Amino acid sequence: MELPTSIRDVPHLEDLLSEPSAAAVDALRRAPGDIVVLGVAGKMGPTLARMAKRAVDAAGVAARVIGVSRFSSAQHHQALERCGVETIRCDLLDEAALSRLPDAPNVIFMAGRKFGSTGDESYTWAMNAHLPALVCRRYAASRIVAFSTGNVYGLTPLGRGGSREEDPLQPVGEYAMSCVGRERMFEHFSRSRGTSVAILRLNYASEMRYGVLTDLARRVLQREPIDVTMGYFNVIWQADANAMALTALAHTSSPPLVVNLAGGEELSVHEVCTELATLMGVDVSFVGQEAAEALLSNGSRARALLGEPRVDARRLLPWTADWTLRGGASLDKPTHFESRTGRF
Are 204 and 235 in contact (CB under 8 A)? Predict the structure, then answer.
């Protein structure tokens, strides 16, 4: 894949975000059959579903890609349909509606809730812990790739390479605790019913309209002082996270495979913002003092099993600076990566 020096516009961006890796195309030959994407209308789902369709076509296999969501915005399902992805409107918590969804040998679980959790914790638990149990009963015979989060680990000391999959889980706050609940439900049904599962702990997906780099670039351009208390972070190009998720369909197991999806770099907030300021031709100032711990994940297991990322931070920084400086589109959904209390 030849990478551009600049991303022109949203169609160009979405084309890049949905380009499958060779590993993803090969995985869909080894894990054939229809693919149902549950929770497809989120930040990552549309480009993942489109990538799945492109990978199916490239693999030369006969398979439907079906995106399921409430689709509160009509433009989401219309855009997916134009790309050859079938869409179904469904409230996944409605067990009768869930039971009517089509059978499929491959399921990607992207449903969940993070923002708005504080003050409405019960709904967050319903989406993040109850719904996985419903899905495991409905798709007990399928391969299931389930997205989770690096928040299940809590903060980790700097200098040790980030949390690893075998580390004890120490979730901070109800959102992170509910995500441990999600993982335990998939683990329980995988162990008790033999359902083949992969759990992907993501930390953090990045594209031009959303992500930690976008948050920081916008603050730098607006001359906001940058708080460096949460001094380090991981990012992974969203297309690489999408491709790894599709590749994981060929690696599901019982008990579940668990892998961290994270870029190979531990990025410094201070260094990243300094570089973004230089690229955008503005000054930057900092407040706070770097803490000794941060939310960091070690993604080496996933990179060895599911393929190396095609885009690293050296490419993402100039892309992000250029997009932000040109006033490129934004989802206007801050990541709140700097939260150390687990409140979202």
Answer: yes
First to last CA, the chain: 37
Cβ partners under 8 Å of residue 7, min gap 6: 13, 16, 208, 319, 322, 323, 328
152/173 Cα distance (integer angstroms): 10
> What residue ranges define each of the domains in the chain, with the CATH number in brackets?
10-205+236-264+295-309 (3.40.50.720)
Q: Are 135 and 128 in contact (CB under 8 A)?
A: no
Q: What CA–CA distance (Å, rounded) separates 72 from 162?
A: 37
Q: Which amino acid is at 189?
A: F
For the question of whether the overall pTM of this predicted structure is more than 0.90, the answer is yes
> What's the whole-number average pLDDT of the chain?
94
Mean pLDDT to the nearest integer, 111-133: 86
Q: Which of 78-82, 118-122, 322-326 has the lowest mean pLDDT?
A: 118-122
Q: Compute the CA torsion angle 97, 103, 109, 114 (nearest 10 deg).
A: 0
